[in-house]
Amino acid sequence: MFTGIVETVGTAAAVSAARIRVESDLKGLGTGESVAVNGVCLTVTHPVGGAFTADISEETARRTSLGSLQPGSPVNLERAMPAGGRFGGHIVQGHVDGVGRVADVVELAGSVELYFSMPKELERYLVPKGSVTLEGVSLTVATLQPGRFSVALIPHTLQSTTFDTKSIGDPVNIEVDVLAKYVERLLVYAPRQEPRR
Questions:
Q1: Domains of the chain, CATH where assigned
Q2: How far is CA 125 from CA 2, 38, 135, in A?
């Protein structure tokens, strides 16, 4: 489990359909450890210092934007939350639900509002002021419109993540709040109560 609070920005040193090599300043990585790379939970193999390799399954390549990374691309990194660690964001699994795209960038006084398109099937899981994970970053939905939504980013978030490198049309990994998915599932399969007479 992750929190969506990015620890550091690394670099995708090499990317193929089945593997990624990341260089970073993370310390003490071990084989088998989970690291969220742009919001995608991957398993560390061959760690050397802060660098590591991770395999990418066919499902992960199909459902996320990792396949569109080029060597040298910056990536958001977060190690799995330790038991007893601070829980600063929200519950993030690292299981991407779909890929959206940057639709607009609006410069505001003291912040930037980014608009994203999203797959239609994810719209029902977003609510204004609710949580959403974009590229592994825990964010709050600012506005919600048919087919798109926005988030407001303060300067710290822009400087501490890859969002300051994003342009209109760039893909972004979206993970909706897992609690919304569980609520939906429970409602679908809840036993129907007969009305009292």
A1: 8-79 (2.40.30.20), 98-184 (2.40.30.20)
A2: 19, 20, 17
